[in-house]
Known about the structure:
The strands form 3 sheets. This protein has a 7-stranded mixed β-sheet. The chain folds into 2 domains: 3-125 and 321-332, Rossmann fold (3-Layer(aba) Sandwich), CATH 3.40.50; 130-316, Dihydrodipicolinate Reductase, domain 2, CATH 3.30.360.10. Helix 3 packs parallel to helix 5. The chain contains 8 helices and 15 strands. The protein has helices at residues 13-24, 74-86, 128-143, 162-176, 208-221, 255-263, 282-285, 318-332; strands spanning 3-8, 29-36, 44-47, 50-53, 55-56, 67-70, 90-93, 122-124, 146-155, 195-196, 227-234, 241-249, 268-270, 291-298, 307-314. It is of the alpha/beta class.
Amino acid sequence: MAKNIAIAGVTGAVGQEFLRILEERNFPFNQCKMLASSRSVGKKVTLKGKEYAVEELKHDSFKGVDIALFSAGGARSKEFAPSAVKAGAVVVDNSSAFRMDPDVPLVVPEINPQDIYKHKGIIANPNCTTIIAIVVVWPLHKANPVKRMVVSSYQAASGAGQSAMLELLQQAREVLDGKPVTVKNLKYQLAFNVYCHDSKIGPNGYNEEEMKLVNETRKIFHCPDIAITGTCVRVPVLRAHSESINLEFTHPITPDEVRQLLSTAPGVKIIDDRANNRFPMPLDATGKDDVFVGRIRQDESIPDNRGINLWVSGDQIRKGAALNAVQIAEKLL
Length: 333
């Protein structure tokens, strides 16, 4: 059944991806409100051939709205999502504002779609790093419970938004031209460089991105005891995150068994060509819905064939953000 929808944060990178995905998937809706900050009021955006003027995101923006897709940042989600719920909308929120709230479902549709229907007006979209990892890990965990998960992420500029992607391009030109490098939206020079993910470091020495991976995975899997540790790094890639994932399983498992399980897993595509040393790259994943996986091999340091190493790449803006939210909205129909 067609609904009335709203997009909060429509002029941002994820907001723009919402428009593309809604059109590609022919999402049924009657009316759509395009919402953003006061700076964007009057800008024109197009969806399914119709031009819309961007309106200011306000507390009274949601009258008659059934589903509100939010990607306007955590502070604005906290401020405006309750108003949307009060007006009768279901909010699918892409920020970190509500993810760990015990009353808010945290959902990846390939993993825990049943949790969608427990909502009290708000459904949270997980962090992009979490989604890209666990779409691949979940079908293995179902077949053979994962005891421990070690993740190292290689995160693209897209994770810091459109401005960071543009700044990476600018920095690369400046380095090649021998000019001083602009560092404005990114924390450090990213062109020709790698640095620790620039989220806040907690008292345990882990940054917020690493702890999101730990806490969100446990919540989505309904598995509070799974051991998870991560190291999250920003790399000079425009779009699509990659991750090295090491898994320790309860029972023995072979690379061939892993390939067989992943070959039928929803949202997963295998690129694992050892003969040609061809495995997933960010360029493979950019603009794609699937998460790509390869480098599937036994971890010979773990006894009894209970360890597996994987390498994944996934589009941070699509499956890591906008696509996952739209898939949740589709379930709400």
